[in-house]
Amino acid sequence: MSARVLIAGCGDVGLRVAQRLRARGDTVWALRRSMARPDDGGIQWLQGDLTRPASLRELPAGITHLVYLPTPDARDAAAYRAVFVDGLRHLFDALDAGALQRVLLVSSSAVYGEHGDAWVNEETPPDPPGFNGATLLEAEHWLLAQPVSSVVLRLAGLYGPGRLQLIERLRAATVRVPRETAHWANRIHVDDAAAAIVHLLSLAHPMSLYLGVDDTPLPLHVLYDQLASLAGAPMPDEGASPPGVGSKRLSNARLRASGFAPQWPDARDGYAALLQRGV
Q: What backbone torsions phi and psi does residue 145 show, to the nearest 5 degrees?
């Protein structure tokens, strides 16, 4: 039996999720703040603002699955709270709770703090260094307290088609990287992120929390040096660690144990394929 899925916040990742769901026969609605896109493979576009409950009054009935992955319209605490905390509550109020079978919230590894070169997994206590991680953590806690099957997926840094700003910065020689003390980088290809969302949405008995990351955390200078070489850019100079992003090595062991395998287990190979294709 096909699912009736609402994707709340259908940008790049959401569109990739929607296309995968449609390919397997699900009915998919995609909710956006801006004007709905033209039809794309049977995706049904809706216009609504998660921060304005009145705009959510005429959502389709009988939604069975919800994927929540909005993007705030500003990078500040108020915008994050309006979308991830208040917006999630507004949407729950607008949906038929009796029909809802599974909710998946896309969160972030920003909920973790500084762990040096230690491994981090779902059992590691969160300690968000910034307002973004703190707000996402609050949204996670609220969702998991609701009487519905819920899954949180904390994604690492995304890369993929249209996400090559790092390559451009390397070519412009504006990137600095710590070398004496390793700062660990964690990545996941955008297609693998979408595939993981679809996988967890339909898993019979999921756990409540997963980390979405590839198999290969890398010291930042190792990743950046390899990308610079692939892009024909100069090696980045020594510099400070990225502000507000603690060093850590994220483990995807739980996600893999659930039956998921990334297409791109190492970001170096994923970036190489993108550069070869000129994406």
A: -90, -5
Which of 274, 254, 253, 103 lies closest to 189 in space, CA to CA? Answer: 274
Backbone angles phi, psi at 91, to 5 degrees: -70, -40
In terms of DSSP H, where are the helices of the chain? 12-23, 77-80, 87-94, 131-144, 165-171, 190-201, 220-231, 253-257, 267-277
Question: With contact defined as beta carbons under 8 Å apart, do 108 and 140 qualify?
Answer: no
The pLDDT, as a whole number, for residue 67 is: 98
Distance CA 151, CA 227 (A): 33
- Of 164, 123, 141, 126, residue with least CA distance to 246: 126
Q: What is the rounded average pLDDT of the residues 147-160? A: 97
Tokens 């991680």 belong to which residue?
133
What pLDDT sits at residue 243?
80
The contacts of residue 236 (CB under 8 Å, 6+ apart) are 170, 173, 175, 176, 177, 221, 224, 225, 228
User: Crossing angle for the helix pair 190-201 and 12-23, nearest 10 degrees?
Assistant: 50
In contact, 235 and 225? CB cutoff 8 Å: yes
58 three-state secondary structure:
coil
25 and 2 Cβ atoms separated by less than 8 Å:
yes
Does the structure show a pLDDT above 80 at 207?
Answer: yes
